[in-house]
TrEMBL record:
Residues 125-340 form the ABC transmembrane type-1 domain. The keyword Transmembrane helix applies. Pfam families: BPD_transp_1 (PF00528). SUPFAM superfamilies: MetI-like. This is Microcin C transport system permease protein. Signal peptide: none annotated. It comes from Rubricella aquisinus. It is found in: Cell membrane. It is a multi-pass membrane protein. Keywords: Cell membrane, Membrane, Transmembrane, Transmembrane helix, Transport. InterPro entries: MetI-like, MetI-like_sf.
Length: 358
């Protein structure tokens, strides 16, 4: 097993390299850039993408500069900005310099905020981890028991009604459900039971230990509920179908013929085999909640997390933050995938990934 883990860890390097290479290449064709954004800010022109073509700058070209918005600004100033951001080097050289820094986890410094990307990511990480972990945990705690009961009662009224509710919940977009929660329970038009923004109250530091915990859960109740809804629906049906497949197998009929109770058959024999596919879905579920839904939920509930940071950095062309968050997202996703495989082996020792690769 050690050799398999080592191979998977070594594969992380070329995988991340490929992800960064593809995105770095695409960025070269995106109109606008960090220089254009700064010029637009200096001139009060708004979005740089509305004013600049993103052409390559010749620092000594003056009025013929590729930066159309740079006309009137000294060429020396433009050249100084390019040198400051490292944009005076060819793209290929910039890419490999970035990769070299990333190998030692030096993610650079934000163009816009004059703070290291590592510090910025660590500052925003707690919000995204809160949404990802709590949503995944709640989804599993609800979906697994519900999916098992639906499998045991397949075709009954309970199964039909719960399936209808699950389909409706899955069909509602996450952002729409989040807005509904705000309108209903956060002072929109009906009740004001929950706060509409932030992870904690302004006076959080002044609260007692218990008060801090209660205030924290009071704030995350709505965003976690909104981010859980789609994951809950998918995981419930996955659990049900997995258990149904196992219930119909020959070894279950044999166990029943031996006189074992339904509880012993279900939890002593079926559970371990049926849970394999559910465990396999953990990385995808966690990553989708942590990355995919974080932007929308963080924006609607005014939470300052990684999703919102990545979006704002892309709009502002703050490339060190864009690629830094991409690097962190990719690394977490690959590591979680490896942990999922190790959980496979823990649940079912019969699985041997090394023998399958030989």
């Amino acid at each position: 097993m050690g050799a398999y883990i080592l191979r998977r860890l070594l594969l992380i390097i070329p995988t991340l390299f490929g992800i960064l290479l593809i995105n770095f290449t695409l960025v070269q064709f995106v109109p606008g850039g960090p220089i254009e954004q700064i010029i637009a800010d200096l001139e009060g022109a708004g979005s740089a993408t509305e004013r600049f073509t993103g052409g390559t700058v010749d620092a000594g070209a003056g009025e013929e500069s590729g930066y159309r918005g740079a006309r009137g600004l000294p060429p020396e100033f433009i050249a100084e900005l390019e040198a400051q951001f490292g944009l005076d080097k060819p793209p290929l050289e910039r890419f490999f310099l970035m990769i070299g820094d990333y190998l030692v986890f030096d993610l650079g410094e934000s163009y816009r905020r004059s703070i290291s990307v590592v510090d910025l990511v660590l500052e925003k990480m707690p919000v995204s981890i809160t949404l990802g972990l709590w949503s995944t945990l709640i989804a599993y705690l609800i979906s697994i028991p519900l999916g098992i009961r639906k499998a045991v009662n397949d075709g009954t009224k309970f199964d039909t009604v719960t399936s209808a509710i699950i389909v409706v919940a899955y069909a509602i977009p996450g952002f729409l459900f989040a807005i509904m929660l705000l309108v209903l329970f956060a002072g929109g038009s009906f009740f004001q039971w929950f706060p509409s923004r932030g992870l904690v109250s302004n006076d959080w530091e002044e609260l007692s230990a218990i008060g801090k915990v209660l205030d924290y859960f009071h704030h995350i109740a709505l965003p976690v509920t909104a981010s859980t809804i789609a994951a809950f629906a998918t995981l419930t049906l996955l659990t049900k179908n997995s258990f149904l497949d196992e219930i119909r197998k020959q070894y279950v009929m044999t166990a029943r013929a031996k006189g074992l109770s339904e509880g012993r058959v279900l939890y002593g024999h079926i559970f371990r085999n049926a849970m394999l596919i559910v465990i396999a879905g953990f990385p995808g579920l966690f990553v989708s909640v942590f990355f995919g839904g974080s932007l929308i939920i963080e924006t609607i509930f005014s939470l300052d997390g990684l999703g919102r940071l990545a979006f704002e950095s892309a709009v502002q062309r703050d490339y060190p933050v864009v690629f830094g968050t991409l690097y962190v997202f990719g690394l977490i996703g690959l590591i979680v995938g490896l942990l999922s495989d190790l959980t496979y082996v823990l649940v079912d020792p019969r699985i041997d990934f090394e023998s399958r690769e030989t």
